[in-house]
């Protein structure tokens, strides 16, 4: 499953507070959200580049990408899987897990 692989790849680059949500019961925009945090812009960039490179190599997928490391939030949209990489300030502000609180997490990595 691509979503679980994204969780592993984010862990490779020391992302923290990683959450995998199965949003299928609540939404048609995607099947899964992967949400994770990074400590700084450089780490956001490293996580995004690593995930993008490996998912391209392993699954042949290229995401639609929005945001930049300096905005504190980058979204990688693989269609069925949407990956959100936040700095802590933006994650606290947008609180996606709270927005999707009716959806139980599939994986949580502190």
TrEMBL record:
SUPFAM superfamilies: Nucleotidyltransferase. It is found in: Cytoplasm. The keyword Repressor applies. One of its GO terms (biological process) is cytosolic ribosome assembly. InterPro entries: Iojap/RsfS/C7orf30, NT_sf. GO terms for molecular function: ribosomal large subunit binding. Pfam families: RsfS (PF02410). Its main location: cytoplasm. Keywords: Cytoplasm, Repressor, Translation regulation. Belongs to the Iojap/RsfS family. This is Ribosomal silencing factor RsfS. It comes from Candidatus Chloroploca asiatica. The lineage of its organism: Bacteria, Bacillati, Chloroflexota, Chloroflexia, Chloroflexales.
């Amino acid at each position: 499953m691509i979503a679980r692989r994204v969780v592993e790849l984010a862990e490779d680059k020391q992302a923290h507070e990683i959450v995998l949500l199965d949003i299928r019961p609540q939404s048609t925009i995607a099947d899964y959200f992967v949400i994770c945090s990074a400590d700084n812009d450089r780490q956001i960039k490293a996580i995004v580049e690593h995930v993008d490179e490996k998912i391209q190599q392993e699954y042949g997928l290229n995401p639609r990408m929005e945001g930049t490391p300096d905005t504190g939030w980058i979204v990688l949209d693989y269609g069925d899987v949407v990956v959100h990489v936040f700095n802590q300030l933006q994650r606290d502000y947008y609180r996606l897990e709270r927005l999707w609180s009716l959806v139980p997490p599939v994986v949580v990595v502190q």
